[in-house]
Amino acid sequence: MADMQTELKKATGISMEAIAGLRAKIRGDIILPGDPQYEVARKVYNSMIDKHPALIIRCVDVADVSSAVDFGSQQGLEVAVRSGAHNGPGFGTVEGGLVIDLSRMKGIRINPEENTVRVEGGATLGDIDHATYPFGLAVPMGVLSTTGIGGLALTGGSGYLTRQYGLTIDNILSVDMVLADGCFVTADKEHNEDLFWAVRGGGGNFGIVTSFLLRANKVSMVYGGPMLWPMDDAADIISYWQELILKAPDELNGWFAFLTVPPVAPFPEMYQLQKMAAIIWCYNGPLDTAEEMFKPIRSFRQPAIDFTAPIPFPALQSMFDALYPPGLQWYWQADFFKHYDGEAIKLNVERNKEMPTIFSGTHIYPINGAAGRIGPVDTPWRFRDANFSQVTIAVDPSPNRNEGMIKWAKDYWSAIHPYSAGGAYLNFIMDEGTDRVKASYGDNYTRLAQIKARYDPNNFFHINQNIIPKV
Ligand SMILES: Cc1cc2nc3c(=O)[nH]c(=O)nc-3n(C[C@H](O)[C@H](O)[C@H](O)COP(=O)(O)OP(=O)(O)OC[C@H]3O[C@@H](n4cnc5c(N)ncnc54)[C@H](O)[C@@H]3O)c2cc1C
Questions:
Q1: What does the alpha-carbon distance between residue 80 and residue 97 come to, in Å, rounded to a whole number?
Q2: Per-residue pLDDT, 11
Q3: Count of CB atoms within 10 A of residue 34's CB?
Q4: Residue 164 has what DSSP assignment?
Q5: Is the peptide bond before 33 cis (omega within 30 degrees of 0)?
Q6: How confident is the model at residue 1, as a pLDDT?
Q7: Residues at CB less than 6 angstroms from ligand 1
Q8: Which residues pair with 213 in a beta bridge?
Q9: Which residue CA neighbors atom 31 of ligand 1 most closely?
């Protein structure tokens, strides 16, 4: 026992007495180095991030979150907050500090009369779709169902329904939060208005959101899925798609991808491992008009592979989960674009002909339509006039390829960035410093820094795309 105490103190700087005091307050799990679950519990989705926190508190309720915040503060620990642990730069963990893990807080309650859903801060997108789909409802979120609602909803949230119903932040009606001093508050249109503005894009800078009240929108069967074309057609397809998506009705969405065809069924063998251009469609309009809607698309250039068909929305949302399991190495680079001219299209095609691994590629998500009609200062998301959010992903199971794939992503970004609108979706970048955060918030950064100074003056919540408090 004496040995264990010394080891714990040495590894974490925290005494057994302090841990015993914490145990009396926490109903969830307290996981320490040496515990059987520690090795699994410390991991985040991106295996490029390999950190050893002093302890992990898996909270089960608001009281746990508040006690965890108090403990971190009293012990002078750096604190990382985690929902789905999907964050690219791995802000869901911290070396030698405290991880407040919300992944056991998955409570979801639908209000079908009001078309709203109350979601606890540790739910995944798949948890939410599972709960809303039987009611013919969905919240606009991202395209992988294993992502956490916490990081996604606090920073943006783009996906299949963005053009029709906006970003996830545009669908937040209220949040319950624990602040840096351990206090509990609600922020919505009537309460703590400044905080309510800030959390709809300002990330985890202002406190821990224990639950979100979200607007749920009409969605059931959609007409969607991927169409793929050979790389030789990529420039024509991207030009055609761009003009289409700039004018299309809101209920039609399609994100563009450069990818390598996975070497598995149902992809036809002749195309497996070929680099191709793809559009992953989601049409949430009347199903009996879908074939007609897609006729000109199919006749513009016959797709080599066409999986676009009626599909339940949650199946579309989780279609790529198996291709990107947790534990891969990830490196991201991103930009906003208003329009792709000939040179930017050429660069995108050329760079993706050199994709360094079969998991790597580039995605371009439309952020116009409903998301583009919100004002640039109505939420912290400044780039409402950008039409596209581009992300290049360098991904592989093996760390041995990291150097090459990171170089590919960085060189590609340096070449394409001059054609961009400036700034980037902060959930699609790595830890790239304050200038990049400022560029992404533009004029809204000053207001965010003032609100940060009011709610978190000591920058307690700083393991994130950090906004530095400034009065
Ligand atoms: C494979 C993959 C696909 C993706 N696809 C999309 C997509 O289609 N659309 C899209 O918009 N994004 C997408 N993303 C990006 C994703 O939105 C971000 O990675 C996001 O940070 C993940 O949220 P999380 O809760 O899982 O992450 P975490 O690592 O748990 O947290 C991320 C950040 O948010 C903070 N945070 C998390 N929960 C809370 C909370 N409850 N209160 C306060 N702060 C909190 C954390 O402190 C941390 O700074 C994707 C990411 C991956 C890896």
A1: 8
A2: 67
A3: 11
A4: H
A5: no
A6: 44
A7: 45, 80-88, 91-92, 102, 121, 142-144, 147-148, 150-152, 154, 156-159, 203-204, 208-209, 324, 427, 464
A8: 118, 174
A9: 151
Q: 339 is written with which tokens?
A: 């329009």
* pLDDT value at 281 more than 80: yes
In this structure, how many other beta carbons lie within 10 angstroms of the beta carbon of residue 4? 11
Q: Give me the helix-helix angle, 342-353 and 234-247, nearest 10°.
A: 130
Q: Whose CA is nearest to atom 46 of ligand 1?
A: 81
Dump pLDDT digits (tens) for 240-252. 999 999 999 999 9
Mean pLDDT of all residues in 157-165: 98
| The length of the chain, given as a count of residues | 471
Positive or negative, the CA dihedral 119, 215, 430, 402 is: positive
Strand 137-138 relative to strand 29-31, pairing: unpaired
H-type helices in 318-401, by residue range?
342-353
Ligand 1 centroid to residue 427 C-alpha, Å: 7
Q: Which amino acid is at 299?
A: S
Q: What is the per-residue pLDDT for 127?
A: 98
Tens-digit pLDDT profile for residues 291-334 = 999 999 999 999 999 999 999 999 999 999 999 999 999 999 99
φ, ψ for residue 165 (rounded to 5)?
A: -125, 5
- 319 CA distance to ligand 1 middle (Å): 18
Strand partners, 215: 116
